Amino acid sequence: MTTDVPALWERPTRLRVGTGSAVRALAEGAPGGGTVLLADSALPATLIQRLADAGGAEHVQLLNADGEGRSDLTRSMMLCDRLRGARRVVAVGGGTVLDLVALARLLCADPHAAARIQHGGPRPGLLICPPVRPPHTPELLALPTTIGTAAEVSPVATTVLDGHRKLVVAGQLAADTAALDPDLTRTLPPQQLREGVLEAMFRILNAYVMKPGSHVPSAADAEAMELLGQLAALGGQPDTIGGDTPDAAARCAALRTDAALLSARTVLGWCQLGRDPFAGKIWYVANELATATGARKMVATLAAAPWLWQRALDGDARYGQADRVRQAWDTMTSRLPHLPPDPAAGLRALAAQWHLPTCPPSRVPAAELARRAVRAWGAGLPMLGQLRTAELRSLYTDILDGEPHDD
């Protein structure tokens, strides 16, 4: 982001929050027909039917979040055909399902979007689509069943193309209405809830630790640290809440509601206001690691992030500013005082204390990971900026071996 471009804040999603909010949002738009409901096939059939009845859905289709052997873009293109002529589309599921449906809606609105995404294969790894909103585009209602992705309110979606993840940015991807209903996240185990909390935390951390630029107001930094502290405190709670009493159930519902709302605020609030959208490097490095290992997003992120932070702490500002890494970590340890004071060591301790799995071994060597990362996100593209293949090879070697090496 150049220094002469003023900050812009614009959020199109209407948000409903709390127990029963999903059914209420569905019932609001039920009259008039033309509703298509697309839901994760892993969800209980009784839940899907209850939501379909509440929304008066004329068609219900189940989606396999694991991919069904086709690329995500291909699946979104197929869904686009189903959505043509619909008045409203309801997406029920986790981040993968919400992204599939949001991209399908984008393809309905913009007939050229698929060709743009496919152009160049995995390079560039990020595509920004021009604004478009034809009159016939269906309304999108998002009902997330997981916490942390913020896919229900985000104008960014991940798709898979030729085995590579690709980021797509478009206003059409953010839902018109989203409901954060703890009834839909009731079965989330503590580990998945914590991974969701971490994902929301890293949306803040990835951008905050970089040099903020002249158009980041102090209010943005203040909100970022406020949210980070609240998320850190909340992440320490899941194991302390249990039991079958009504009071315990109410506390669990309140915890899930707060986690979902804080996650959404990392997108809907102004903690990202004025920041360079390409500044943070953790996501791009972790993305290639997740692809190579088959690890979940946050497992790969926690494997990579300490090594990027260590380079920042050693003075390499391309990975982050040392003082901002320490400020962010101080905010986290103020809510989680049992963690080590060193940020890089502290992230590793956090992963262990929150019982997150370690990243599996990579089937791809460090040199190839570096080459793939540069192809998708570097070599003149702003995402990896000045980082060269040799530097990324050293970084990936550290990550894979679990110990530092000379550049």
Throw out a few tags for this protein:
single chain, 407 residues, alpha/beta, Rossmann fold, Dehydroquinate synthase-like, alpha domain, 2 domains, 3-stranded mixed β-sheet, 11% strand
Roughly what percent helix?
Answer: 40-55%
Please give the CATH architecture of the largest domain: Up-down Bundle
Radius of gyration: 21 Å
Global geometry: globular
CATH-assigned fold name of the largest domain: Dehydroquinate synthase-like, alpha domain
Describe the structure.
The structure is a single chain. The protein is an alpha/beta fold and 407 residues long. The chain has two domains: 14-185, Rossmann fold, CATH 3.40.50; 190-401, Up-down Bundle (Dehydroquinate synthase-like, alpha domain). It is built from 14 helices and nine strands. The chain has helices at residues 21-28, 45-55, 72-83, 95-109, 113-118, 190-208, 218-235, 246-268, 282-293, 297-313, 322-335, 343-353, 366-377, 389-401; strands spanning 14-17, 35-40, 59-63, 88-93, 126-128, 139-144, 156-161, 164-169, 177-180. The chain has a six-stranded parallel β-sheet, with helices on both faces. Strand 2, helix 2 and strand 3 form a beta-alpha-beta unit. Helix 9 crosses helix 13 (366-377). The radius of gyration is 21 Å and the shape is globular.
